[in-house]
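Below: protein 1.
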Amino acid sequence: MILVFGGSGQLGQELTRAAAARNVALVALSRTESDIANPAAVDAAMAQHRPALVVNAAAYTKVDLAESEPEAARAGNETGPANLAAACEAAGIPLVHVSTDYVFDGTKPKAYVESDPIAPLGIYGQTKAAGEAAVRKAVRHVILRTAWVYGEFGNNFLKTMLRLAATRDELRVVADQRGCPTSTRDLAYAILKIAPRLTARDEVWGTYHYAGSGVTTWYDFARRIVATQAPLTGRSPAVHPITTAEYPTPARRPANSELDCHLFERTFGFHGRPWIEETDAITRALVGARS
């Protein structure tokens, strides 16, 4: 059985749906049911469910708010993963931990590989990097760094663009940051697909990059979303490119969030789905659900 912490988040909900569709035994716990920042709550959940694999889909993800809430970010992104790693190590259970492109500063001209030095720009990235370090104390772990996550659940860029497209005639979107949009359903599929190798104790432990195939900018990502929803809603707002300087935020963003995922592909035999195909499918699903 797979035990997921962070079950009410966008990835946690997607894992629940994906497991049900594939007849995979999985229990997903929300923060209310088990707060990973509380070691006693983690230990109780582990004792109750006795999983074969633990997935940490819990995190503090409010990138800008983290600048003014460092303790909350640290609790969710550093203390929580440390508690899970300690519990998994004590029980001899493998741990999958989801991390982020924000551990890098975005100055590299090419795609980031797993061995590149980390240099997070803000509190969110710093606490996620600290969480990775804590997880590495567990012998049997897989850290999956991903980027630009979106899907049908929770709050994300794609859903924000759909909401704005329904009410505005013009959208202004940053065009000088690039990355690899990753759908939660693709990420959930990847976790469930590698799970049997982890529970079999294959020697595949370590840090991997896993993201959607293809690279784009937030501007072109937005244009794709708007173009896909237009024939379904009749709404075609103009999308204008702007610079990062024109859209200041409390937390700095990496200019380059492109992740090289070849190590994951060589190890596990598959790669992320094309971001355009996933974006189109999820956009249609969300618009259809509103109709």
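Below: protein 2.
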Amino acid sequence: MLKHSLLVLIGSLALSTASLAKEPLMVVYDNDFYGPTSADILPLIGSPDVKILGFTVVTGDGWRDEEAAYLLRSLELYHHTEIPVYLGAVNPLINSAERLRAWEQSHGKVVWKGAWNESSLGPMFHADQPYKIAALEEGLPTVKAQAESAVPFMIRMVHEHPHQVVILAAGPMTNIALAIRLDPEFAALAKELVFMGALIDTNLGQVSGSANFNTDFNFIFDPEAAHIALTAPWARITAVGDISNNTLMTAEAYKALIDKRTPVTEVLARHPWALPMWDELTAELMIDRSLITKEVEAYMDVDLDHGLNYGITHVWPEATHPGLGEQKVHIVLDVDKARFLAQFAKAAQSDLAFKHP
């Protein structure tokens, strides 16, 4: 009888442990969502291991409201309108289009200016009209963003789920900086900050490769926000920077992706890949760290002097960092690209990615 009771107890504990192991990762995804497919959300909505608490939108590649329209429309197309969307900052903390133009006069051109791109680049760019929403390629959404703003929502989530929420950031970190300044406990209460950005030593890459891809837009757009984020007391920080520039959707992988016809891949097929998989890789690495084949740990900060290096990332080893609040960061140097592309396709093609009504 005692033996039977012990076996029942052990079995119960095993089931309890297994149940705990299957608890999904809680995520708040903060990004400058821009483009008709929102492909970067697919690793998240297509994974059973992730619980998306909400999407928060920040101005970056486009203006906030237009980015939110893109995201909301994608959520409609994928039948995931149950995931709430929250509007964040319209402008960086200090930087502005005027300041950027003044910087360019002395230090050279920034190829990609995001929301501040001139209208000559196309009808989707309207630098002086921050609240304009152009006619989107997939149509305008009917669902709306939440009434609550992004920053209070982010703060509320880490307090409701202390040490459980990953802040995933793939755009300028304005919302995150505001949360840190409004609530000194915000960073420490989060599980981790995972972000796309912090390109390092890219000066030669601007002439040997793409000047656009080798400009650290997320940091340059709002350097002060990046500094505030990098000097906050997170339990862990992971940076996905240079490796994302070299992670491309191959022709073979794209064909395999869209060959399986689903409502999601039909959207992807209408908008062929033309850019590195910056945000998609960052999202997938947050879910599956085993994709990382090489990384280094270093202290990191961003240059705030309004000179040539404004917005440029700097890193130090333990022995030489200045000790002015900079935090240790796990910098991803290489990944298993073939397995990443396969996992991205699996997530995009999954039944989870398209929620049947």
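DSSP finds 15 helices and nine strands in the chain.
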